[in-house]
Design brief:
Length: about 375
């Protein structure tokens, strides 16, 4: 059996570890905290390919395929873990708050329809029929009926329990300090406590911390970007679809009737502090997107660190200089949607050196080439 160490137990690392285990590898998953405790559990759980797209590029096509594969992944994870993820496909309304945003939405509508996707521009009144309470101050809305979400806090718990019910060896509370190699070949990792784990392959899926691991053959341009989120209590006017703005703010309904509101994008390093300024940004977006929630007070708030690469695209695939090192990091705002498909791609690359999917646009040495 091929011995593989996966560094990081968020959605990227856990999905990869599960895919490797299903294919017969001997997998050790190393996490300095606990599975799903960082960006995965801190996210809003949006499975949105069309909203996050910047155009019909390789990342968009990868996210789109990842979205279509999500029901299968969620069903398998629910069965393995015993957790319900509350996967739902209620669509997404994106508010066009100015004439410029309306024109931007019209351009998005054209190319996405040319790609065969469902999308529509709605007048405020039509949007209010889909979701009562919206429409105040918006020029129009962009409607994506195929976007979805799941409960990311339940996802984090499910990933950990699923790992525990497999043959995967989980080491938690003790991270990796360095990747060890000899003669251009990975030989294992050195743990934070000084222990060495031998391995024939190492998958780097440490999220925002990926670039801090020692022994890398190249500088890895992945930085942490803080996102603050608040949870608001249930209310009489239930939220069904996700409601969002072009600025990256959103309201995401949960099965218990609460609403997650976020998120900020803050370059503050590895700082997960909650700030008054961040909460003010969230409150202003709540008031703008669904005015009926303006007087509600959040019942919970937290922050996570997204792993953002230098070009905002994921870093996937083997290192061309260090044999046995494979990357699964830099997923950024697309981490939840990309995780399962990217995990399958990485598992194929680890075990066979090839994948049915074109991973080359996301290779690690693309930055040096520029």
């Amino acid at each position: 059996m091929l011995e593989v160490v996966v560094i990081g137990a968020g959605i990227a690392g856990c999905s990869t570890a599960l895919a490797l285990w299903e294919r017969g590898a001997a997998v050790t998953l190393v996490e300095k905290s606990r599975p799903g405790a960082a960006a995965t559990g801190a996210s809003a759980g949006m499975i949105v390919a069309q909203y996050e797209s910047g155009g019909p590029d390789e990342k968009f096509r990868l996210c789109l395929e990842a979205r279509t594969r999500y029901p299968e992944f969620a069903a398998k994870l629910e069965e393995l873990s015993g957790h319900q993820l509350y996967l739902r496909w209620d669509g997404m309304l994106v508010a066009n708050l100015s004439d410029e945003e309306h024109e931007e939405a019209a351009a998005t509508l054209r190319w996405q329809r040319q790609a065969g996707l469902e999308a529509e521009i709605l007048e405020p009144g039509a949007a209010a029929k889909l979701q009562p309470g919206v429409g105040v101050g918006a020029v129009s809305y962009l409607w994506f009926p195929e976007e979805g979400q799941l409960d990311s806090q339940r996802l984090a718990a499910a990933l950990g329990d699923a790992i525990a019910r497999t043959g995967i060896r989980l080491i938690s509370g003790n991270g990796v300090a360095e990747i060890v190699s000899s003669g251009g070949q990975v030989t294992g990792v050195v743990m934070a406590d000084g222990r060495t784990l031998e391995a024939e392959r190492v998958v780097l899926a440490a999220g925002a911390w990926s670039g801090t691991i020692g022994g890398l053959p190249r500088e890895l341009p992945v930085r942490p970007v803080r996102g603050q989120i608040a949870r608001f209590p249930s209310k009489t006017l239930a939220l069904r679809p996700i409601v969002a703005s072009h600025a990256g703010r959103y309201l995401v309904p949960r099965a218990d009737g609460t609403v997650l509101a976020g998120s900020t994008m803050e370059d503050v390093g590895f700082d997960r502090a909650i700030t008054e300024a961040g909460l003010q940004v969230i409150h202003e977006s709540v008031s703008q997107l669904l005015p009926g929630m303006a007087r509600l007070k959040p019942i919970e708030h937290w922050a996570g660190l997204r792993p953002i690469s230098a070009d905002s695209s994921p870093i996937i695939g083997p290192d061309p200089e260090l044999d046995g090192l494979v990357y699964a990091t830099g997923y950024g705002r697309d981490g939840i949607v990309l995780g399962p498909l990217a995990g399958a791609i990485v598992a194929e690359l680890v075990l066979t050196g090839a994948s049915r999917h074109d991973w080359r646009p996301f290779r690690a040495d693309r930055f040096a080439a520029r």
